[in-house]
Please model this.
Amino acid sequence: MTEGNEYDKVVMRACAIPDRTVPMSHFSETQTFTMSPTALPAAITSQAEYDAFNDGASTRAWRRDDRLHYVSGSTRSGYAIYTFGNILASFDLPALVFLTDGGQQYAYEGEYGVHGVEVLDAARQRAVIAQMNELFAALKADPMIVYNAEEFGHLSDNDVEDALARDYVCAAPYPNAQVRGDDGESADYMFVFLRSVLRVVENALDEGLLVVHSVEM
Model:
């Protein structure tokens, strides 16, 4: 049994959605969830348009107790998001750019900053799966790419290797006692988050659903 299997079942619900009623101005927040294609609006250009479908769709995805369909991310100072962007600078993996601090399909001014939203259909899901697996393989072969990309000074010896060796996934990598590091500022958080997003994308493709990813820096 892999580390992540339990989080594709009922235990996944122990990963609670963080309370978003409290401003967290020093954290960057993300949501990744599946939804029916028929529920998506024609455009997402404001917080009101996003909330109109997000509130119900993300909750339904989080409540799924059979497979992982929702991931909430929270990383201080955008640590994992900026570091991942620096990592991607060494590769030609355009399908993964939506997980950085820019380049999302839709963008508007949110409550605490710019809010980017990306919608992945089946074709883009396949590209994300292929390119994320390609990236993981390359980083396992050369972990120094991550050490060199990280500009915050939070990494110690073997942090990246240990994080890449895990297969743990969950709906909320932070706060989470099973994820090493504080405030979403660690290699373990970043790779648990990325693996969890990948699992959501895989499950969406298997079930014919869209994936919506939002980031508020």
